Amino acid sequence: MNEADIIQICAVAFELGPVHRWRRHGGTAGKTWKVVTSRGKWLLRLRGVRTSSDRLIAFDHALRRHLLDHGIPTVVPLRRRDGRSFIRIEGRACEVYPFIEGRSLSGAGAPEIAAAARSLARFHAATREFVGGSDLPPPAQYSTLGVPETSPRLEDPILLTRVYEKLAARPGAVRFESAVAATFAWLRRLREEFDDTVWGRLPRVVQHGDYTLANLLFGPNGEVCGIFDLDWACRGPRVRDVADGLFFVAGRRRSPLRPGDIRSLTEPVELDPERCALWLKCYEETAPLGPEEWEAVPLALAARWLSVRAEGMAKVPADERLDFCFGPIAAPLRQLQERWPAIRGAAHQADECGADAADSGEGDGAGGR
Hints:
This protein is an alpha+beta fold.
């Protein structure tokens, strides 16, 4: 089914009125469109196959309502006359949201890093008492990579090791010998230092699951005015989101972010100690990390990065997948190993969030999800 048909079906189902114009608004696994109709501006969202089950959608929508009730800037989906907040199109769920105006950033500066860190801390505080999601089935995170087993934790080191064993066995992997060696060294460390016992002791919240610049909207003064895309939200250790922000918000990008481009979304950033320390300090203003969490943050980041490289392969041509996975994989792991002590030390010494810690970010566009 083509895009125009999807948009027309949604416009009729949600009684949006005649469609005046529309354009693609990003997305990789899922797709989004900004649509203008006689009733206003909307964001149409076609969810990915793995996140389109009734139970996941019910959890997502209930969480959004809970967040709004607790002052977290997000948006809830429009309801149809029958009370349902989505329709199915060829097995995938399609939702409609009011379009939220704001700035989508191609790179974060000090004010945005500080604001995003504080907003994540408030998000975690608001989700501590959220009761939904306890019955969600564990995600088959690596089923598309030939590992159908599931785990209650995202980036399970055991499953991630199986993924990379399969990748390393491919004939073309021999070209990436040093990158493969670096990958397996970190996988071994994750299995030993970030096993289920360590993971199980960490404080729990509802994780956002994909806390990146692509899923945040900013106001004119650098404040966060929208937190979106809860497809991977689930209950788990908050350090995973902290690690996400450390890399995908505070990390110094090499090129402007393009949200619909998997290569841009997963660009290997520079882990600048000053910017990363700012992120951690501002998060801790609202939600201090415990000693065991400080130890876990770099491990969570390494696991997330390894998973991103593997999962993203499905979104590039088949003959480019090994290069996508292993080509950029080693540099951030090396930086993490070398710079984490300086980042942690600087975070504990920082006096004021957002004060001269980074270059200013570039804002562009508007959106809502």
